[in-house]
Design brief:
The chain has 14 helices and 7 strands. With 305 residues, the chain is of the alpha/beta class. Helix 3 crosses helix 7.
């Protein structure tokens, strides 16, 4: 096994200069050109190397000041979000009361990996996690760090977690009555708008947590008429949510800039004008410029177990 690993490393090191020399003699492949134009992009690599780089990204992230602060931010928001879902009495209330995120001891940070079975809390509530927007982590360092954050977050969840769902659904996924965390770093505004539309009710939104682009930032950057015309659900929900921004450090500025945790308190949702919920028109974006969204295909969503 050690000999094979050494041979693989030697092969990768020997192949790199040949690619650099030949790049000037022939046109770049479409994928390579896209990677070259993406911050943090790297050449495509084989599967084993990708896994090693993801692990390295996790190890770098878990010992950073950013990770501990960001974990605290997510944990605090998720706790508050779940408190509102507690039933007055009964098994569901007890189960939700056990769900929490917690940072591992300092010594565990030096060796990131799966959470030992004895640290899992028995009888915890299951919640879903849906991931949109993480790019090509084989060739992009930024995407790899975003994926590493999600993997670490799930490892630190002392709860029962359904498989992570990914797929080209244009964000139109219903929570189906289950508490769901949507991990959507640097997604297009239409994706957030679609997600809100699909869950446009007090009951559904009260079960949604979104880790993604700051909604307040969207409000500041977009013209008011554009926001209300093309992204009406984002515009209407701005006064019905709680938003906590991610910490910012130089090391992960490009990875998590403008990222926040959003959740929707029932009290705020019920205080919105009653006609807010009457508007149910599905977004179409027919005349929307600079639309950042991948249209849905017939492919079914995949699960990462």
């Amino acid at each position: 096994m050690a000999a094979a690993a050494a041979a693989a490393r030697e092969s990768w090191q020997a192949a790199s200069p040949r690619r650099r020399r030949s790049a000037a003699r022939r046109p770049k492949r479409r994928g390579a050109a896209a990677a070259a134009g993406t911050p943090g992009a790297e050449p495509e690599v084989e599967g084993g190397a990708v896994l090693r780089r993801i692990q390295e990204a996790k190890e770098d992230l878990v010992i950073s000041d950013f990770w501990s602060s960001a974990l605290e931010t997510v944990s605090s928001c998720l706790q508050k979000h779940l408190e509102q879902l507690r039933a007055p009495e009964g098994p569901l209330s007890e189960a939700l009361g056990h769900l929490h995120l917690d940072a591992p001891p300092v010594e565990a940070d030096a060796a990131p990996g799966p959470v030992p079975e004895e640290t899992l809390v028995p009888g915890t509530c299951c919640f879903k996690c849906v991931c949109y927007g993480v790019g090509n982590f084989a060739s992009c360092a930024i995407a790899r760090s975003q994926l590493a954050f999600l993997l670490l977050l799930l490892e630190r969840c002392q709860t029962c977690v359904h498989p992570v769902h990914v797929g080209p659904q244009e964000g139109k996924r219903s929570v189906c009555g289950e508490p769901t965390v949507f991990y959507m770093p640097h997604c297009g505004t239409a994706l957030y708008n679609n997600l809100l539309w699909r869950n446009w009710s007090v009951d559904a939104l009260s079960k949604v947590v979104i880790i993604g682009n700051s909604f307040r930032g969207l409000e500041e950057r977009l013209l008011t008429r554009i926001l209300h015309k093309h992204y009406p659900y984002v515009a209407k929900i701005l006064t019905g949510l709680e938003e906590v921004v991610f910490p910012q450090t130089p090391r992960y500025m490009d990875v998590f800039n403008d990222t926040s945790v959003h959740w929707f308190p029932v009290q705020k949702l019920t205080q919105l004008p009653t006609d807010t919920w009457a508007f149910q028109e599905e977004p179409d974006y027919q005349d929307c410029e600079d639309l950042e969204i991948i249209r849905k295909t017939t492919e079914e969503p995949r699960e990462l177990t």
